[in-house]
Design goal:
twelve-stranded mixed beta sheet, ten-stranded mixed beta sheet, 13 helices
């Protein structure tokens, strides 16, 4: 999360405090919680004034945001009958210690915050929840593996696999990791371990140690423990989340054993929850309230009887619901890649198989096809409903390979993660990167980005073909009748630290025993 967003949220929430009525029912106080190693965590607590025992929610703040982040939501939950404790994790702002990035120290802190809550507030020990956006969401999920007192979790814009988030398909996510590092330096005290991990990540060295650091900080690592504790888990994310891509959540969700719900929406990281931070009703926070009311207060909100998978269609306010992730798509449309024709410098996406061809491009330079800017590009889509676009005829065919389907005579309702199978051969280099983009292209040549994926071939050898089989990030997108599907593959995108070397070449091919294709999961 960027430091600019942190400042904006802090300013607005400060205004909320100034303008809040003095007669608000819940009592409020600022707290210090000193944990086992002497570190003091800064926080606050809202407590209902009527005597009695209450369910409790522990809010953990986002990366680089102060305790005030949840002030408005905490006040509203407390007014509805919850004890609400919010705290800033170690290393940020005036909380002591170094940033642990949801490591063992952070998870131990969450347990001690629960201890403090039980000792100092009228909390019912059988009804405790943990929640947060982004950093707080991941910590709440991991915490539910190590503290069985957490009976419900609301994890908004969360991650379950930090290795995938930083390093999906062997490709380092440059902009998102850079913003995390910058905001940590500006608002907190990064630990020596975090600085070493980030230094290695950006230097492209000792990546095994970075992966080990990330695995310890991933809820997926502790899935068996979470399933043993069986908390009720609500997870939400965005199709275009440039920090925590949605595919890690769909796999984790499928393997969860307890009560569960997965909500995916258009946009980017933490955008879907943003207006709710300011107390403006939105879908993410409405679901969070219904989830906690059901599993902590025992109120029948109806949420437990609904289908657990909820997908908001991109460009629409409409939701579709499904009983499982595997039920999201019911069929597959496969498009085989053809030879690239000399007269058009592009190929076809065909229903019939075509093999024995090869297309070579100049690598190391970007094209009009790109994923945009972290948080901003896909964040705009959440507000306007308009996806990122590129004018497909303007894509440089010497630096990218392009394939397009026939004009569609019926809509293609894409639900889930499209798949790419391709043979890649670095021409005069070893390690290389390819980025594949799927576009919904209209008659004027404007392509709306459906999804994209980057793959780095770290063990590639010059001149040696290598098979690539990769899933695109999941989405829910309707390609209209009269449009067509475009596949663009190039070798550079500013979102990623890895790219094909300058002055190199890359060839794409479809050997007879390994045809190249893209498949769409369809409703």
């Amino acid at each position: 999360m960027s430091w600019l967003r942190a400042i904006a949220v802090s300013v607005v929430l400060s205004l909320c405090i100034i303008t809040s009525p003095a007669s608000a029912a819940p009592s409020f106080r600022v707290i210090d919680i000193t944990v086992r190693d002497g570190v003091t965590l800064k926080g606050n607590v809202f407590t209902p004034e009527t005597p009695g025992k209450y369910p409790a929610i522990i809010f953990i703040t986002s990366w680089a945001l102060p305790t005030l982040e949840y002030y408005v939501q905490a006040q509203q939950f407390a007014a509805a009958g919850y004890v609400v404790v919010s705290y800033t994790p170690r290393g940020f702002y005036s909380s002591g210690g170094g940033i642990d990035t949801a490591g063992p120290k952070d998870i131990g802190d969450l347990t001690e915050v629960i201890d403090w809550t039980l000792a100092n507030t009228p909390t019912d020990p059988a009804h405790i929840g943990a929640a947060g956006v982004s950093y707080g969401a991941g910590m709440a999920l991991i915490g539910s593996a190590f503290d069985s007192r957490i009976r419900a979790v609301a994890a908004m814009s969360c991650w379950t696999d930090l290795t995938y988030s930083l390093f999906a398909n062997q490709t380092r996510h440059l902009q998102s990791a850079g913003l995390l590092w910058l905001s940590a330096e500006l608002t907190g005290q990064p630990s020596a371990e975090l600085r070493q991990a980030l230094s290695s990540f950006f230097a492209n060295q000792d990546l095994d140690s970075v992966i080990a650091y990330a695995q310890v900080r991933s809820a997926a690592t502790y899935l068996d423990r979470i399933n043993a504790n069986r908390p009720a888990i609500l997870m939400g994310n965005a199709y275009g989340d440039s920090f925590f891509g949605p595919n890690q959540l769909t796999d984790f969700f499928t393997r969860l054993a307890g009560p569960k719900r997965l909500e995916l929406r258009p946009g980017d990281h933490a955008i879907a929850e943003l207006t709710g931070i300011f107390g403006i009703p939105n879908d993410a926070w409405t679901s969070t309230r219904r989830w906690f009311d059901h599993y902590l207060r025992g109120v029948d909100t109806g949420i437990a009887s609904e289908n657990p998978v909820q997908l908001q269609l991109r460009g629409q306010s409409t939701y579709e619901s499904y009983p499982s992730w595997s039920a999201v798509s019911t069929s597959t449309a496969r498009y085989n890649l053809s030879d690239v024709y000399w007269w058009s410098d592009e190929g076809d996406l065909l229903t019939g198989s075509q093999t024995g061809w090869s297309k070579t491009i100049l690598a190391g330079d970007d094209t009009l096809a790109n994923g945009g800017l972290v948080m901003l590009t896909n964040g705009v889509e959440a507000i306007t409903g308009e996806p990122p676009t590129a004018w497909i005829p303007g894509v440089n065919r010497s630096k990218a390979a392009v394939w397009q389907s026939e004009w569609l005579t019926s809509p293609r309702r894409v639900r889930g993660a499209p798949h790419l199978s391709l043979t890649v051969t670095p021409g005069n280099s070893g390690q290389t990167t390819v980025i594949a983009y799927l576009y919904d292209t209209d008659w004027g040549g404007t392509g709306s980005l459906v999804t994209h994926v980057a793959v780095t071939l770290r063990d590639a050898v010059a001149g040696q073909p290598q098979a690539v089989d990769v899933d695109f990030p999941a989405t829910a997108y309707d390609i209209p009748s009269g449009h067509r599907l475009s596949l663009v593959i190039d070798t550079v995108d500013a979102l990623y630290a890895d790219k094909a070397p300058d002055f190199s070449t890359v060839s794409f091919s479809s050997p007879g025993n390994n045809p190249s294709y893209v498949s769409l999961p369809l409703k």
